Amino acid sequence: MLPLAHAGHYAIWVLYVLPVLVVVGAILKSFASQRQANFPPAGGDDSEDSAGRQSPESETGPAGRTLP
Amino acid sequence: MSFIPFAHALASRQDLPIPAWLFAWAASIVLIVSFFALSAAWREPKLEDERARPLGERLSGALLGPPLQILCGAIGVLLLGVAVYAGLEGTEAPDRNFALTFLFVTCWLGFPFFSAVLGDLFRPFNPWRAAGRVAGAGFTAIAGQRPAHLPYPERLGRWPAAVGLLGVVWLEVVYGAGGIGIEPHATAVAALVYSAYALAMMAVFGVEVWCERGETFSVYFGMFGRLGIFGSRDGRLQRRRPLSATTSWATVPGSAAVVIASIATTSFDGGQEGAFKDALESVVEWLADLGLGPTASLRWGETLLMLACFAGVALVYLLGVRGMRTVPGAPSFAKLRAGFAHTLIPIALAYLVAHYFSFFVFQEQAQLGFLLSDPLGTGTTDLFGTAGWEIDYSILSANTIWYVQVAALVIGHVIGLMLAHDRALVYWPDYRKATASQYWMLAVMVAFTCFGLYLLSVSNG
After folding, report:
1. B28 vs A1, A19, A30: nearest CB
2. For B231-264, what is each residue's pLDDT tens digit?
3. Residues of chain A neighbouring B279 (CB-CB closer than 8 A)
4. Residue B210 in contact with residue B216, Cβ under 8 Å?
5. Nearest CA to B236 among B410, B435, B45, B55?
6. Least enclosed by CB within 10 Å: which of B163, B349, B392, B396?
7. Closest CA of chain B from A23, distance in Å
8. Within a domain: residue B1?
9. Is B451 on the interface with A (CB under 8 A)?
């Protein structure tokens, strides 16, 4: 059992973990948004989600050209 | 590196302009910016082809020809012999005996450092390879046929080398725990046992096969040699594109374990007297309560900690690989796991530099000074007139050490990102998918950077 009196000594690692959490959080948020775009809520349009974004199926334009 | 005092924390840092933890934030920002710069500007694989240019035939012939190969091999055997003799017959004072510094500093750290720039320097000096080749030539001359070898089990891959790497660090750090560190005599005995093992394996599987797959030092130093700009192919020395040779390194099973073991053992050694100290003490106390003696408790505690470090580093890497699997078009988990293992090589080097470069600079003064003149450390010889030299610790300031550590970690991880991005473009030719897959490797790199800086900041006090 680690003594509570030394808690401050260990707390410093939180400052080192913070950047990792920020990056992981950003990735998860990005993937969640992507997932939402892939699977729009029931009743939504097939090609656009509720925010008006295009679904991945519409990433290729006419003649298969990749859209930016 | 616990056998010599002041291995890591030579002095507390003074006058840093910002708190140490803020360096971790700054390093993370550098990585994130590098990541997006790579995404924007690097849209085709560039490192898969070594684009090697052969060097002049005469130069190749001179450097790779039998005379120099024999000379280098003989030097390797001679120096190993001197180290073993010094360990067996010399003083037990670890800092005055040639054996420890030569094996654990000059070779163990020197070959990775210099091979990472120039290419695999250990291969010509490998004493076991030299002895094995001489024995093979002798057999051929006597028997009139080349020695027959068993086929090497493919699935075994580089696992023997990974286990050997853990074993070397275990011997160095854990076996010597609790006292002043590992004794020169034990080191010499271990070197002899390892020599017998290596030669036996070479006899069974063949010299070159064992050196490529199972011989710990060849595999470990050769891994860093892939970062270097010189290599050889078909008996010809060649200059290759920097980093490009790493891309073909991890095709053998167990390669990921080798590089993970390298990062884990460095982390373990760096943290055992710093960041992990309190946790280690708790485990040791718990083991002592179970009835183990003081030395056994310490050794078991440190062994568990070392294995935990290995598991932790492996877990972070595998989480990154698992994350990549979520991107459409991803190859199998096993293919990704092996396919990105080489991206950890610069990180392993960065960890080595960050943790040991100051130690290396200090101890090499001893190596090239009094240890060379008085290998036994008995004060009875002065071969080169340098037996009276002392180590000048003022050659590096504490702040210089810190800045080199930070720079090594940042540069190593940026290079790791580059390698990962380049490999992702092979698996996902669409650069947007490649970039998406590398979000996870970015997280892995940021995690390793912050972890490394945390270990150093605690160690340096």
Report:
1. A19
2. 998 888 999 999 999 999 999 999 999 999 999 9
3. 2
4. no
5. B55
6. B392
7. 6
8. no
9. yes
In tens, the pLDDT along B277-319 reads 888 999 999 999 998 888 899 999 999 999 999 999 999 999 9
Partners of residue A6 in chain B, C-beta under 8 Å: 278
pLDDT range class, residue B179, cuts 50, 70, 90: low
Enter the ipTM.
0.78
Confirm or reject contact between B446 and chain A (CB < 8 A): yes
Provide the strand spans (E) within B122-268: 230-233, 236-239
CB atoms closer than 10 angstroms to residue A58: 12
The pair of three-digit structure tokens given for residue A52, joined into one six-digit string: 């008006």
Looking at the domain assignment, is residue B299 inside a domain?
A: yes
Which residues in chain B are closer than 8 Å to A27, comparing Cβ atoms?
323, 439-440, 442-443
In a domain, B203, yes or no: yes
B24 at interface of A, judged by CB pairs closer than 8 A: yes
The tokens of A21 are what? 């959490």
What residues are paired with A48 via a beta bridge?
A54
pLDDT surpasses 60 at B37? yes
Residue B279 lies in a domain: yes
Tell whether B28 is within 8 A of chain A (Cβ).
Answer: yes
Which member of B25, B439, B450 has the closest CB to residue A30? B439
Chain B: closest CA distance from residue A35 (Å) = 11
Instruction: Count structural domains, chain B.
Output: 1
In the predicted structure, residue B204 carries a pLDDT above the cut 80: yes
Q: Which of B32, B323, B453 is the closest to A16 by Cβ?
A: B453
User: Shortest Cα distance from B445 to chain A (angstroms)?
Assistant: 9
pTM check: above 0.80: yes
Asked if B21 has any chain A CB less than 8 Å from its own CB, the reply is: yes
Domain enclosing residue B298, as ranges: 6-457
Write the CB contacts of B396 (distance below 8 Å, at least 6 apart in sequence): B10, B358, B361, B362
Residue B11 predicted with pLDDT over 60: no
Q: Rounded to an integer, what distance in angstroms lies between the CA atom of residue B452 and that of residue A20?
A: 13
Residue B215: how many other CB atoms lie within 10 Å: 30
Q: Which range is least confidently modeled, A9-18, B84-93, B136-145?
A: A9-18
Query: How close, in Å, is residue B446 to chain A by CA atoms?
Result: 6
What is the pLDDT confidence band of residue B8, given thresholds at 50, 70 and 90?
very low
